[in-house]
Structure formats: structure tokens, C-alpha cells
From TrEMBL:
<comment type="similarity">
    <text>Belongs to the ALAD family.</text>
</comment>
<comment type="function">
    <text>Catalyzes an early step in the biosynthesis of tetrapyrroles. Binds two molecules of 5-aminolevulinate per subunit, each at a distinct site, and catalyzes their condensation to form porphobilinogen.</text>
</comment>
<comment type="pathway">
    <text>Porphyrin-containing compound metabolism; protoporphyrin-IX biosynthesis; coproporphyrinogen-III from 5-aminolevulinate: step 1/4.</text>
</comment>
<comment type="subunit">
    <text>Homooctamer.</text>
</comment>
<keyword id="KW-0350">Heme biosynthesis</keyword>
<dbReference type="GO" id="GO:0004655">
    <property type="term" value="F:porphobilinogen synthase activity"/>
</dbReference>
<dbReference type="InterPro" id="IPR001731">
    <property type="entry name" value="ALAD"/>
</dbReference>
<dbReference type="InterPro" id="IPR030656">
    <property type="entry name" value="ALAD_AS"/>
</dbReference>
<protein>
    <recommendedName>
        <fullName>Delta-aminolevulinic acid dehydratase</fullName>
        <ecNumber>4.2.1.24</ecNumber>
    </recommendedName>
</protein>
<dbReference type="InterPro" id="IPR013785">
    <property type="entry name" value="Aldolase_TIM"/>
</dbReference>
<keyword id="KW-0456">Lyase</keyword>
<dbReference type="Pfam" id="PF00490">
    <property type="entry name" value="ALAD"/>
</dbReference>
<keyword id="KW-0627">Porphyrin biosynthesis</keyword>
Length: 326
């Protein structure tokens, strides 16, 4: 047959050649591992909708961190599940709040581990919204002061990075100002700049007991249909002082990750959220998918789309697989 074509298969012919041609690699340093901390003692309760994810009390926390560190993971993000909630989320910015205590404890035992603090109110408010509520409305500006207080208390406890996730307008500016005034000008902000109002957060809200008690989060989180708006959100957060930009969720938003990466010259972080985790876990438990292969493909896809870092509940699994391969 006299036809012309290109022989792409020449470069795929063996394991070694494929390894040489591989463009994207996962490393344990790519991951930030989320941990849920709870009040009480001797608690290690699995979250029903997130197999392999636990509520941990502080007496069991160091053992868990030891394992994480031994796997080569450099960073965790802490989420608090407080014993008490009220209408202004007091436990989010309390000096003895669960995240503040966890942070102090972890930084004392593992000073090199990079501890990220999630800065939001929804786990701490009785109405489950991310801000102050009045007459059924989530108020923007009065919430900013509470977010700045939360960030300062987390930095005081030793958090290395502040990650505000609540999507009030101006939250980066308010937190940057608060941190600077309190002498934390060296602490970076990893902003959830592009956060969609997503059904993929369902299992997390079980885990964090943070479902809104009325309405939804659509007046502050973004419409999944929007792309241009993502760039506006990212731009304003950068102007306000964000050091990293998070895109969340990740899997259904790989185009947004690439847009943000192309447009802005700062580290981009994907939040591989709870629903993305639980779907794979459930299918794997049924024997319907090959967990290792599918998780690796998903995370490689995020990196290929342009992320520098990934917040993922799979961090420990992947780090273990990487170790086994070497
Ligand atoms: C808090 C917050 C949420 C997640 C992280 N921080 C949930 C929400 O907005 O309801 C979701 C994380 C996940 O699904 O894994 N605002």
C-alpha cells in the first residue's frame, strides 16, 4: 500500500521506552493530605460516605502524621469538627478551637511538616453557612472580620499556610490585611479562588457536619456553567494578595485549571474533592474499576491540566504506590 503516515507506535514499544517518553509524573511532594480532627479521646471513626477517611481525636493524631511523613508527604490540611456550634462560628477563631489545638500539637511534634489551615466558618456555625446570616441572607462584609480573626488565630497556632475557602468577596484582602497587622506578613495565602457550588462536596459535608441548614451556597460559590467568571475570581484574589490559586472541584473542571494556569503565573492547586474520592472508592469496593490505575490516571490528568499541587484524600494511597514502585 502506498500511503503516507506517521509511526507514533515507534515510541511506545516497550516499558522502558514508555517511561523515557512520559511527560507527567506524580511525586509525594505534589500532595496535600486532608485530615478531620474532632474533640474527645480515642476517636478514629470512619466517615461512612468516605471509606478510608477518619475523624481523629488529637491523642491519635501524631501516630497518623508519623505515617504520612514516612510516606514522603510534605503537607496536610486540617479541617475541624467542633463539639459546639453557634450562629457566629466562635470555635473557628477560638484560641482553644480544635484546629488551633491540632496545629500547635502537630507543629510541635513535626516542625517541618507544612500545615495548611482551611479558613471557613461553615463547620462552626449552627446554620451551616460560611458567613454571618441575617434574615436568611449570608452577609458579606461583616463576615470578613471573622475570617481575618480565624486566619490570625490559625497563624498564631503555627499554621504555615492559610487557605480561605468561604467565597465572600474581599476575603483575601481582609485576611492579608489581618495577617500583616498581626505580624504574619510571611504567611502565604492559598486561596480557594475558583470554587464552584458543587454536588461533589456531598460526602465532605457528611464528614464535616457542615451542610447548610437552609438554602444552598449558590449566592457565594460559583455556577458550574461559568468559565470567564473563573478568571475574574482568580484575578481579583491575586490582586488582593493570594500566593496560590485553588480550583475546586478538579475532575469536572480540568479546562478551568488549564485556563488559570495559562493566564496567571502563580502556583495552581487542584482540590480533588470528596465526591470525586467516594465515587472511585465505591466503584473499587464493588470490583468495578481498578482503583490504583484509575486514581493514578485521574491525578496525572490533573497535573497534565496544569496543577502544581493537589489536595487529595488519595495522597497516602498514591504515596504508598510510588514507594512500592521504587
Ligand atoms: C468549606 C469547605 C468545603 C470543602 C472544603 N472546605 C465544602 C463546602 O463548601 O460545602 C469541600 C471539600 C470536599 O468536598 O472534599 N467551605
Amino acid at each position: 500500500m502506498n500511503i503516507q503516515f506517521t509511526r507514533h507506535r515507534r515510541l511506545r514499544s516497550s516499558d522502558n521506552l514508555r517511561a523515557m517518553m512520559r511527560e507527567t509524573h506524580l511525586r509525594p511532594e505534589d500532595f496535600i493530605y486532608p485530615i478531620f480532627v474532632v474533640e474527645g479521646e480515642n476517636k478514629q471513626n470512619e466517615v461512612p460516605s468516605m471509606p478510608g477517611v477518619f475523624h481523629l481525636s488529637l491523642d491519635l493524631l501524631n501516630k497518623e502524621i508519623e505515617e504520612i511523613v514516612s510516606l514522603g508527604i510534605k503537607s496536610i490540611i486540617l479541617f475541624g469538627v467542633p463539639a459546639e456550634k453557634d450562629d457566629v462560628g466562635t470555635q473557628a477563631y477560638h484560641d482553644q478551637g480544635i484546629v488551633q489545638r491540632a496545629t500547635r500539637q502537630v507543629k510541635e511534634a513535626f516542625p517541618d511538616l507544612v500545615v495548611v489551615a482551611d479558613t471557613c466558618l461553615c463547620q462552626y456555625t449552627d446554620h451551616g453557612h460560611c458567613g454571618i446570616v441575617e434574615n436568611g441572607q449570608v452577609l458579606n462584609d461583616p463576615t470578613l472580620d471573622l475570617l481575618a480573626r480565624t486566619a490570625i488565630s490559625q497563624a498564631k497556632a503555627g499554621a504555615d499556610i492559610i487557605a480561605p475557602s468561604n467565597m465572600m468577596d474581599g476575603f483575601v484582602a481582609a485576611i492579608r490585611h489581618g495577617l500583616d497587622e498581626a505580624g504574619f506578613e510571611h504567611i502565604p495565602i492559598m486561596s480557594y479562588a475558583v470554587k464552584y457550588a458543587s454536588a461533589f462536596y456531598g460526602p465532605f459535608r457528611d464528614a464535616a457536619h457542615s451542610s447548610p441548614q437552609f438554602g444552598d451556597r449558590k449566592t457565594y460559590q460559583m455556577d458550574p456553567a461559568n468559565r470567564d467568571e473563573a478568571l475574574r475570581e482568580a484575578q481579583s484574589d491575586l490582586e488582593e494578595g493570594a500566593d496560590f490559586l485553588i480550583v475546586k472541584p478538579a475532575l469536572a473542571y480540568l479546562d478551568i485549571i488549564r485556563d488559570v494556569k495559562n493566564q496567571f503565573n502563580v502556583p495552581v492547586v487542584a482540590y480533588n474533592v470528596s465526591g470525586e474520592y467516594s465515587m472511585i472508592k465505591a466503584a473499587a469496593q464493588n470490583g468495578w474499576v481498578d482503583e490504583k490505575a484509575i486514581v493514578t490516571e485521574m491525578l496525572v490528568g490533573m497535573k497534565r491540566a496544569g496543577v502544581d499541587l493537589m489536595i487529595t484524600y488519595f495522597a497516602k494511597d498514591v504515596a504508598r504506590w510510588l514507594k512500592e514502585e521504587n
